[in-house]
Amino acid sequence: MTSGPDNGGAAPRPRRPVLVDSTADWHPGGVDPALRAQVAHATAAALVSGGRASADPAVLARLLALVETEGLDVVAAMWADSPPESLPGALWRLYVLREWVRRDPATVADRYRQGVDAAPVEGAVAGVAVPPGPADVRAVVDAVLSGVYTGDLATALERAAAFCRVLATGAAFDADHLDLVDPRGAERQTRGASSLLRTADELARAGELWRQGRLE
After folding, report:
1. Residue 22 has what DSSP assignment?
2. CA–CA gap between residue 149 and residue 120 (Å, rounded)
3. Distance between CA 72 and CA 20 in Å, rounded?
4. By CB atoms within 10 Å of each CB, which of 54, 181, 199, 214 scores lowest?
5. Contact at 8 Å (CB) between 40 and 78?
6. What is the average pLDDT value for the chain, to the nearest integer?
């Protein structure tokens, strides 16, 4: 994918971070919503508590590679419909963000380069090397997700939010550049910037709730 949070023209589900196209058509189908919510919260809490209780690097590596090993559909089945102001909803956004960066680090690095000068405070919080390359943005999202299991979870969410805001700024600049030569591309970039900003706000709010002991 090349334009960030775009779902190929399909209508996104409300409040879902539309960063990876293959999630757009996922549907839980026939499962009782209350049971689905219970499973989402239980699995998220188990992963976070288990990861934070372990000092084994192999455990952390498996947690980081959850999407690669289990598949995006499996992770979506657990968490995709969870409210953003919940632990499973926050984890879903972090894993989808990491998957986007893992799949297209060159585009993400380009968006970040375009946005970071206009958002220096957010860039400092995100902590990406400047100018960033593909390896740098991949390293940062891995570090952010690692922080969920080895550091302060609120800080990890705040770094992810800042990262998304810089990318949103870059996507908006890219839309401006495309406006005359590729109006449809500019429209996609504008939607992508809006989606990233929404995801950033959701991650930041989840971080606030974690600090208050209210993210469940």
Report:
1. G
2. 27
3. 9
4. 181
5. yes
6. 87
Cα–Cα separations (whole angstroms), residue 170 to 67, 128, 130, 135, 195: 26, 14, 14, 18, 13
Does pTM surpass 0.90?
A: no
The pLDDT of residue 197: 96
Cβ–Cβ < 8 Å for 21, 195: no
Instruction: Report in angstroms the alpha-carbon separations of 167 from 35, 53, 161, 177.
Output: 35, 33, 10, 15
Distances, alpha carbon 118 to alpha carbons 115, 169, 171, 186, in Å? 6, 7, 12, 19
- Rounded distance between C-alpha atoms, residue 46 and residue 78, angstroms: 12
Per-residue tokens: 201 = 């706000």
Which of 103, 113, 102, 207 has the alpha carbon at shortest distance from 153? 207
Residue of 95, 191, 77, 76 whose CA lies nearest to 144: 95
pLDDT tens profile 13-48: 333 333 433 333 334 455 678 888 999 999 999 999
What crossing angle do the helices spanning 153-178 and 87-103 adopt, rounded to 10°? 50
Per domain, the residue ranges of the chain are: 29-211
34 vs 193: CA distance, rounded Å = 33
Q: Tell me how far the alpha carbon of residue 174 is from its chain's centroid.
A: 20
The C-alpha atoms of residue 215 and residue 196 are separated, in whole angstroms, by: 21
